[in-house]
Design a protein that fits this description.
By secondary structure, the chain is an alpha/beta fold. Helix content is 34%, strand content 23%. Strand 15 and strand 16 form a beta hairpin.
Amino acid sequence: MERMQTRAPVTDAAGAGFPANVHFVGIGGAGVSGLARVLVSRGVRVSGHDRAPSAIFKSLQSLGLELGTGASRAEHLPPGTELVIRSAAVPPDDPQVAAAVARGLPVLKYADALGRLAPPETTLAVAGTHGKTGSSWMLWHTLEGIGDELGSSVAGALPVAGALIGGLDRRLGTNALAGGPGGFFCVEACEYDRTFLRLSPHAAIVTNVEEDHLDYYGDASAIRGAFAHFASRVSSDGLLVLGRDVPAEVEHAARAECWRLGRELEVALVGEVRGAFRMRLRGPGWATPPVQLRVPGHFNAENAALAMALAIGCASRRARVAPEAVLAGAAKGIERFEGVARRFEPWGEVGGIELVHDYAHHPTEVRVTLEAGLRAFPGVPVHVLFQPHQHSRTARFLEEFADSLRGASRVVVADVYGARSHIDGARFAGSPELVTALAARGVAAAYGGDLRGSVRQLVEGLPARAAVLVIGAGDIEDVRDDLHEALEQRRPLRGAF
């Protein structure tokens, strides 16, 4: 590939300086890839490497970047590199990182690079144990709708919002947008590695706070403390929107005005279409018109409420127009949201079998995904292909995972995906242990082994009509083609329920 000419250091619209040549290690990561997209859009020459070509990695190839895959080696670091950014999943002793250090190059973790990029005066951050990705895109779409509605009013116009979010928006086909000068910047603020504590957002959402990433935090108290610290970093003249179950200590730490779901914010569900709710949201002195969501599940209704509330609150303070225009735009914007890749993502229907994939990898996420599936496919048996994520998480939440899957007609459990296996430590549980726990609860469950074997076992046990939820945050997304092929081959062999 032709190399771009080396430039002087680039300063983005937020005033954060990045050199002209930046190399990413772990560039296929959800957030890291988005950061790469934003830098490319701002004139930075980006190269990168990852161990495997994920879907997000492949989407970056269309930008013409210099990318590599496979085992990391020092020679993968391009000679003209001026800064290296590594994902949290890349250890400090990675060969490319070590080579950068040996050359005297600065190395930033993704969290530090994000903090350098996000402008405090316009950043809207979405944090929480669950729901960050969908809520972040809901926030962006709501702001887009408000901006469109106010577009005819010079006094009330909003600059185009930017985004850096850990998942591809299905409508837009990207996980990052540069936005316009002075526009709000929607950021997914991840708690892992305390990434969100590098941000100083103008306003923020905290969807929920639960035990997760215990391999990093150690206990629930440390997690709550980190979220409280995050809340304290929101600007005192901004806004903090909280899910109904966010711990009180998070709110008490905030300097900003707080709106909480179930207190200042009330959701009224007024209809349902295949699990996707029609709703209205009431806030302090305002109420939206009815909104028909396109994504199923109670959790998505609540996430939409949080996103609309933050967008309405921030836009109303900035725009000098009648509030009705902001509310109408918010409703139109949220109705455009079609979902996020790997979050209840439809994979199509093959021979009477509906396929859906979801990134869920925490018991709460698995439970609400299954609940959404049962609502979206009423009267149809729901089968699950589940890939646990990390042995340490499987061990810590073994019983909770088993409980979360109790509503499934059948569960096939694939081998554990071992991301960050270098820090799993002594806590270890595998898929056979989860199968045993499911069987103890009366759930039809089987161990499938590797992904290919798991697909084969899943398909062999399917009835003539069913819905299949393919759940997991690892490389289980790669089974899509194999699953379609296996279902096509079984068409003449379909049996009864």
